[in-house]
Amino acid sequence: MAEAKHFAFTTDLWTSNTGHPYMSLTVHYITPAWEMKAAYLETAFLPDDHTSENIKETFENLIKEWGIQQSAVECVTTDNGTNMKAAFKSLLPSNWLSCFGHNLNLALGKALKIDQVDASVRACRSVVQGFNHSWKRRRELAKKQADLNLPQHTLIHDVVTRWGATYDMISRFVEQHAAVTATLMADRNTRHLVLRGSYISTLEDTCKVLKPLRTFTDSLAAETCITISSLRPVLQHLTESILTEKDDDSSLVRSMKHAICKNLQEWYEDSNMANVINMACVLDPRFKLNFMEEADSVKRQLEQHLTQESSDNVGSTSTLSQESSARGECEDEGTSVSIPEAPKGLAGILKMITMKKQENRQSADMVKSTPTFQEVSAYTALPTISVDKDPLQWWKDNEEFPRLAKLAQKILCIPATSVASERLFSSSGNIQTVFHSSLKPEKLNMLVFLHKNLP
User: Which of 48, 50, 45 has the alpha carbon at shortest distance from 440?
Assistant: First the structure.
């Protein structure tokens, strides 16, 4: 970490098996040698109320202990918890990113809450639970599967908070529907549990909507490769391809797609977040401007980023002094402001219009002559590389874009999801089991750190 200058973080809150509250912290950065690195820093005990102020203070203390300046923090990726959002939006107004996995889960949750879908899923869950609690039914189910030449698969009970688990339950139930129905019909005491046809058709429609989305759950959860730059292409593919209404879609499928698409887009309406996502996409040589609807506007934003970077390096005192000087000159001349005379006649109006046009052209020519404009233009003019190539290797091999390279190191290290912190909790749960319930918080923190960071 010592060699890196820019850092991105993920963090999340968790309660252990013993009821102790913790806050996780992972760090992500790109080395000067253009290697993506991730490290697990803390499983910090957080006994205070999980207010935004306490979360913010804990984060500041943790990065301070690790010797990381707040100015080096480029972004923090978290879920959409109100306290998390409030904490990091106040700490880093332009540098907070909501977790893609959490957003997708919430968007799909909206579709699953549609009354017709919710009733069918609950009915399916009730039947599955009945089979899981009865060895006799599972035994008879296996016999029916053999008779019907169906795969010898057991039914899956879902985790309500994870849409992927709900899809797995529904998908397996639809696959085994014939065997399940035959098993229930064979016993007059269970015939009333057979799902009616409307429930089955609803479950089939639900599978149709959820199946193409299943692969996206962990698609942006990698820790040692760039993920933030893929967010714009993935979102565009979801909203403009997978979730578009087809001619053969039922009314329920259309309603589910609309609910998912609308909710998913709402999570990324924040202009600061959209700006970061767009810049990351453009700075990835695999994509550049391919997924930008307004390429010229995005290029100007990129130029503004680079100009801001340059001014930050030089310092803001020169700009402030120039402004002060300008104000001083105005004050010396008095408070009166000279108002140009209105042009007289057609000749005067045409003269004014011509001068304005010349000024605009000169201003545009000055912009095009700046190193920033030329660097952005040269970079975007190059062809994109194959999507299976490593973008970091491309930046390492192309040193003729120093300003863009510096910005790329800052932005491309941002993780698109907070899955890294969730994985930290999984490791913590495997360490602090019922057989190790007396572990002190500081010992748990040390064990998790060693487990996750040692090769």
Answer: 45
Q: Residues 281, 226: contact at Cβ < 8 Å?
A: no
Put the strands of the sheet holding 73-78 in their side by side order.
36-45, 21-30, 7-15, 73-78, 96-98
- Helices 419-431 and 441-453 meet at what angle, rounded to 10? 120
pLDDT at 305 over 90: no
What pLDDT is attached to residue 14? 84
**Comparison of pLDDT for 18 and 344, the residue scoring more:** 18
Which are the contacts of 295, defined by CB distance < 8 A and separation ≥ 6?
A: 289, 380
**Whole-angstrom Cα distance, residue 273 to residue 218?**
21
Q: Would you list the DSSP string of 134-170?
A: -HHHHHHHHHHHHHTT-------PPPTT-HHHHHHHH
Considering just the CA atoms, what is the radius of gyration of the chain in Å?
29
User: From the CB of residue 141, how many other CB atoms can be counted at a distance below 10 Å?
Assistant: 23
Q: Are residues 71 and 103 in contact, defined by beta-carbon separation less than 8 angstroms?
A: no
**Dihedral through CA 200, CA 203, CA 205, CA 210, nearest 10?**
-160
Spatial distance between the Cα atoms of 203 and 200, rounded to a whole number of angstroms: 5
Give the Cβ contact number of residue 338 at 10 Å. 6
**pLDDT at position 48 over 50:** yes
Q: Give the length of the chain.
A: 455
Q: How far apart are CA 431 and CA 441, in angstroms?
A: 12
DSSP codes joined into one string, 215-253: GGSSTT--SSS--GGGHHHHHHHIIIIITSPPTT--HHH
How many CB atoms are located within 10 Å of the residue 211 CB? 13
pTM above 0.90, yes or no: no
Q: Please, which residues have CB within 8 angstroms of residue 376's CB and are 6 or more apart in sequence? A: 299, 302, 303, 306, 404
Please write the tens of the pLDDT for every residue from 236-271: 999 999 999 999 999 999 999 999 999 999 999 888
